[in-house]
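writing this on my phone so excuse typos. first protein, seq and then structure
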Amino acid sequence: MHTDLKKRTLLQMAAAAAVAPLALAACGKKDEGAATAAPSPAAGPAAAAPSAEPLKAAWIYVGPVGSAGWSFEHDLGRKEVQAAFGNRVQTSFVESVPEGADTERVLRDLVSQGNNMIFGTSFGFMEAMVKVAPEFPHVRFEHGTGYKTGPNLNVYDSRFYQPVYLAGIIAASMSKTGVLGCVGSVPIPEVLRNMNAFALGAQSVKPDIKLRVVFINSWFDPPKETEAANALINGGADVLLQNTDSPAVIQAAAQAGKLAFGWDSDMSEIGGKAHLGSVIVDWGPYYKKAVGAALDGTWKGGQVTRWGMPEGQNLLIKVSDQVPAEARARLEKAEASIKDRSFDVFNGPLADRDGTERLAAGKRADDAWLGGIDFFIKGIEGQIPTAK
């Protein structure tokens, strides 16, 4: 999430083509709440919305909302905002927004419609938001999972790697083959961090367990996700994780009689007997905090907020009854230590799989280190694709 490859800029070209018309007024955009408000006056982004008019807040999503996954979970957060503030806000969203120049057009269109707060929920939206935000200093921009801020641009993110470590504990406890699998999206630090965290959690139970990974170079591509999942299963993996946005991986595991974890949102019903737990992020609390600050006039730009398990934003939920008592005890102990901050996932000494020290003994990883991960630890099999 720091300097590195651009997260989500590698979104599949086919997905972009499917949305190419971008007739935002006619498709893809949905509104909830009060009647349309006039554009907010250029009084600065921290100014409260006029009492007679609602704050117009819009969200842009990189994929379809659907019924599970990344964009679905963000939209649940948007709905929490609408429910919490009622007619004081009018919320809307645009789904399946391609990254790049198309993002800029969507942002400008939303501003022209009177939105005075915009949430961009994909790393690949970052450069567009950085470019557009200075053009509209009266609009509050919030970027999810990035690292660049501005006078009217904030960043918010989550610490997925914390519950992913817990998933690793369960996976090692449930695996019969000693091989785990992970379907990766794009080879950026966030994804590599999650894969390493999964392996570290698993190795805390079984030091010799293997994690095999396959990248699909897309965040949302159900056919490719299914193909990658089946390849991992055919290679011996009997417990799967994913860092992609659709339920395809857990569905493939269920079809093959294997085990898997839900990702981004609760996938317990989708996965059925295959479901061991879901690694999720609850965006609602942050969205309510940010919108509340805009409404009461305390919103400030240039801020970075990263929450995780201690703040209740990241969770491992719906742990399966299949998980034995011993594994649950390990899980609960690790969960408690992460929540009270007495333990975190990445602590030194830590070396990559070539034996090079990456984190010195006695050191705990900070955000700069976490944002620069470009390696796998020992026990992870698979290549890290070259960035394009």
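second protein below, same order as before
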Amino acid sequence: MSQKPAIPKGTRDFLPSDVFKRNYIFDKIKSVFKLYGFAPIETPSFELSGTLLGKYGEEGDRLIFRILNSGEKMKKADVQALQEENLPRFANSLAEKALRYDLTVPFARFVVQHQNELSFPFKRYQIQPVWRADRPQHGRYQEFYQCDADVVGSDSLLYEIELVQIFDAVLTKLNLPGFTIKINNRKILSGIAEMSGESDRIVDITVAIDKLDKIGEEGVINELRNKSISEIAIEKIKPLFQLQGTNAERIQLMKILLKESEIGMKGIEELEFVLNAIHNLGLERGELEFDVTLARGLNYYTGAIFEVKAHDVKMGSICGGGRYDDLTGLFGLKGLSGVGISFGADRIYDVLNELNLFPADVTGGLSVLFVNFGEKEVTKCLELAAELRKSGIDCEIYPSTAKLQKQMKYANDRGVKYTILLGENELASQTVILKDMISGIQTQVSFTDLIGNIK
């Protein structure tokens, strides 16, 4: 018995109608990226393992898909590491390459490798798939697309302002009725760690805080305890979970809390600059909110951090990003600050589907189908079809002289806008019957007027 075909969990097939919808999302995102001066690049789907490992923290490293060595390279496996039960070292010896986890680290590698060919600040956008060995669930996939925009080579906060505007412009173009752009600053989180007496535990603290919306306050506190964060520190962190008021009121409370922390006050200064600028400029639909519990679990963020959530739908963040002051330093190019954001196209797709926000015509049905009445008629249909295509009108001819009912069913299934009926009588009079498949109205049109009538 043949095995029933299947795909791996966490992946999806996309039918033509789905791909039309996804391209609609990509096109809207690209159009805004271009408006703000970003240029496209692409990088390989897999990188050397050493490029990726160690850049995302312990949790991120566990989610990287590794590619098993093949052929003679398998003989280089570190068997001694296996005997010593050093599984990470053994795994590294089996896999020299890995699928990319995100687009940012490969971008940093790209910048270092091509630094002499780029002009700085360098603004790039990139729309490609990434892979994570995460547990599949609603809105979380093992293969998904990211749509990134990054600026590298400047520490100007003008780019943070620009990226907030890009979030707002893209999601407004996609007709999302409401969404919140959450913003924080990693320096503020460093100040909190310093204030709590746990400066050297900033990663453990931020990883725990970042899970607040998933596991709740008690869950975060338990995780902090499991990480051996002191009870004194936990008591100092707990009030942050209940921070209320407007952005300005929250800023003032944090100024009081972090007044003794130089790095914390620097983070507040940077954050306040962005908040004030956006307040003066305004946003079309988005709401910008200072959320001190926003941490984002990636180790490379050093300044502003962003996350976007859609209203009226149960879904995690649909966008994110932040500033990374020395990511390229990991590859030998020091002092090159960068900031970037990412749109989660797959989650946005799910949100637009759930809220029924895709335009009715986005599925891009076929414009014209020629009905097949026989060899003599099809010869003329081929000529007319060639003329339509030269004029930019997509069309096709039904491949056989099947019953008219069957051909019309095919037209309906394909979402055809017009069918063209060209029989023996029409051939003699050099006309066609042009049928509007939505209204059902049929019009007799001459060969010469056909293109004009369709357009």
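The chain is about 40% helix and 20% strand. thats all i got for now
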